[in-house]
Amino acid sequence: MTETERTNLQSSQSPARDVVIIGSGPAAWTAAVYAARANLKPLVYEGEPVGTEIPGGQLMLTTDIENFPGFPEGVTGPELMERMRTQALRYETEVRSELVTSVDLSKYPYVVASSYSEPVVALTVIVATGAKAKWIGLPNEMRLAQHGGGVSACAVCDGALMFYRNKVLAVVGGGDTAMEEALYLTKYASEVVIVHRRDTFRASKVMADRVLSHEKVRVIWNTRVVDVNGADEITSIELEDTETGARSSLEVGGLFIAIGHEPNTKFLNGQLDLTAHGYIKVDPWRTSTSVGGVFAAGDVIDDYYRQAITSSGTGCMAALEAERWLAHHAGIGESPILETAEGPVPASPEQVEEPPADRRSIPRSRRESGAPR
Ligand SMILES: Cc1cc2nc3c(=O)[nH]c(=O)nc-3n(C[C@H](O)[C@H](O)[C@H](O)COP(=O)(O)OP(=O)(O)OC[C@H]3O[C@@H](n4cnc5c(N)ncnc54)[C@H](O)[C@@H]3O)c2cc1C
After folding, report:
1. Residue-level pLDDT at 113
2. Residue 109 preceded by cis peptide, ω within 30
């Protein structure tokens, strides 16, 4: 830590927090468990209900989770999240039920501002704010989604449930994600019907061709879904022709919305580098971001796996990296990982070079930049 940083730290109003975690999905709670067990007394901002965003994250919008290890009989999304939260609170974790409204990463230590309390000074920050699955906004969509009634925004998560087996399943969307979800569902459905509001797909040609040539897939073009019917379980969807306005119903046993995701990064106000699709950029196989001491985990860095278990995995990584960063840069605690991490294995013998004299596990780019890293 430099002299200026030390002065900033000492002159700050409230005592600096070792680790501030923003978010409340699997990534945030796993990071909290690890940070708390390392005596770092994490402060977690778990958010507050805003539309379909609820503290606890995306799993609050679903019922049965059958693919999270350790629950052979399955577990509901809300129960899994409650258990993770309880586990974090078993150790010294402080929780604030507030949204983080902004962060100041321009000077060190960092400042995290939230809806109601005074801003907090943070030595490290873990961003685990997830992503919003986009929903259409149909009158009965969320009612059936939240109670396991056959509406979902994740085919890979829910498609294999018994509920959806051997039924006609509708998929809404026309991009690569929709194509992937439709192909995935062909394993379980009697038929997959893609409802698309245009007359061509936005998806790459290769994906679109695979879908269009699949014997179980049918496409209804130039049509949008305007509502979903069913008291406790979906029975049909209401369709509207985008050219003629004609209405019709289609009997289905499930509706999968595949119209994209939006990572929750607005409060960062451009202070972290993002990918072209708006996810927080991290170093390969690390959770370190473009700003030293700031780590990111879960769906906010992930446009590929988007699963609870991968979010927990990167949450664990972020906490270990933060712990290590504090040991190296702020002299707090012991580094949990000594200088033993190995460099990447070369793909071919030609790529083998003399190892640098000072071979550390801190990525080169971090050591060369001027910011506190
Ligand atoms: C319908 C559905 C079903 C799914 N089923 C499964 C499944 O069966 N198995 C599986 O592995 N995965 C499933 N997933 C995917 C899984 O939910 C996500 O991969 C996982 O929840 C991502 O976790 P995360 O920790 O990144 O954050 P999220 O779960 O996205 O949660 C982040 C939370 O952080 C909070 N937050 C956001 N911004 C702020 C802020 N500024 N300040 C404070 N708090 C904030 C919000 O409450 C937000 O909800 C499903 C997803 C959906 C939508």
Report:
1. 98
2. yes
